[in-house]
Specification:
43% helix; 241 residues; 7 strands; 2 domains; Alpha/beta knot; homodimer; globular; alpha/beta
Chain lengths: 241, 241
């Protein structure tokens, strides 16, 4: 069952109760993998365990990360849950179309932000798509586990219907997010050396812009090699001149 | 809006937190009417108010009844949420088919049982249909507000116009294909100068690979400028070294 390829990732969650509640929710729909980035409550957390009821196994096997990038490093496609529309050149889809963006055999990550604020623009820069749950415009902030269970429900429906999809015969496999990140550090390092990412106070937003571009590309491993080749060529040969 | 004809009815709920959580959930999806049959916690309930966040109005306008029959007396069609299949001669539908059973202009009630036990067979006797949320067979008991929000989500979708994607207020407009091509000629020229696109018989396929990458990006004009900046920086500053 392909639900085994789904990873729910809670970024900076504030309350143990919500983490426990999400654990129960994902187990209700046969999803096993929970990742947590920089929890802001104690961890392991007694309230989380109490509220998860029969989903203690999900909590116990959950993994803790210290950055969003690391938490998605081994995944292929990343969706970020958002309740607001952002000024970012990244496609925002309705959750009702989530299934169309999922590809067979790929490892899928779903990012959820903190209860109060949601994900920051930096935290969504590694996402391929933003996903919105259509809701009451005047009262659109859903509880964390409520958002999560709607994703579970949609994913479960998708994978239990077993819709057929077409496999492309394209040979090179999609690069893991960690490979994209490696490539990005490479260019950022190069650009830093050359003073491109200045003034300093604009550096972070310039980096975010660059990350947004390359993360939404679904680059294949071959394409990463091509881009690396291009960038290092532009560097090297000039040095000889 | 026909969501105004939807009534959520909690039967013998045990915990104020869950009632508050359901209030928030239904308001998230523009549903206004909450009814409660024989609550087993104090009522009004402070925990319910605290957890409902901005949905206090839903709690304050909720109505209390002392029997299921009375709570559905003025409604036209009644659905009862159930997690188990019962030995009862009553149609059990999947929630994905709920919308097919809803008729225009009719008042619709949705019954939810107590957290631990669900609705009794007596309590569902007034229902037209039983409704099941497809889920993990080995762990199918959903939290009360989680079941409720999945109903909300389905009903909201049914009654509202489907948006499949959202417009961002991101300012920079998508670059025309001709601008992408101009950018591509720029890098290809640069790469040619440096002998990257060799041997000659592979040149065309290398160029095709590069074009494939950048054309599928939906680059904005701003992003094109960023990329141009990156490429020409990598070129220029080196010359000075």
């Amino acid at each position: 069952m392909s639900l085994n390829n789904i990873y729910f990732i809670l970024v900076r969650p504030q309350m143990g109760e919500n983490i426990g509640s999400v654990a129960r929710a994902i187990k209700n729909f046969n999803i096993k993998h929970l990742r947590i980035v920089n929890p802001r409550c104690n961890w392991p957390n007694q309230k989380a365990l109490a509220i998860s009821v029969g989903a203690k196994d999900v909590l116990k096997s959950s993994k803790i990360y210290n950055s969003v990038e690391k938490s998605v490093g081994d995944l292929d496609i990343v969706f970020a849950s958002t309740s607001r529309i952002r000024k970012i050149n990244k496609e925002t889809i309705s959750i009702t179309n989530l299934k169309k963006k999922i590809k067979k055999g790929r490892k899928i990550g779903i990012l959820f932000g903190p209860e109060a604020s949601g994900l920051s623009n930096d935290e969504i820069s590694c996402a391929d798509y933003l996903v919105k749950i259509p809701s009451n415009k005047e009262f659109s902030s859903l509880n964390l586990s409520h958002s999560a269970i709607i994703f579970c429900y949609e994913l479960f429906q998708h994978f239990s219907k077993r819709k057929s999809s077409y496999k492309t015969s394209y040979k090179s496999s999609i690069a893991k997010k960690s490979e994209v990140e490696k490539f990005l550090s490479f260019i950022i390092k190069g650009l830093d050396k050359k003073g491109f990412l200045q003034p300093m106070h604009k550096r972070q937003s310039m980096i975010r812009n660059i990350k947004n571009i390359f993360h939404r590309l679904n680059l294949s491993e071959q394409e990463i090699r091509i881009l690396l080749g291009i960038f290092s060529t532009l560097n090297k040969i000039n040095k000889k001149t």
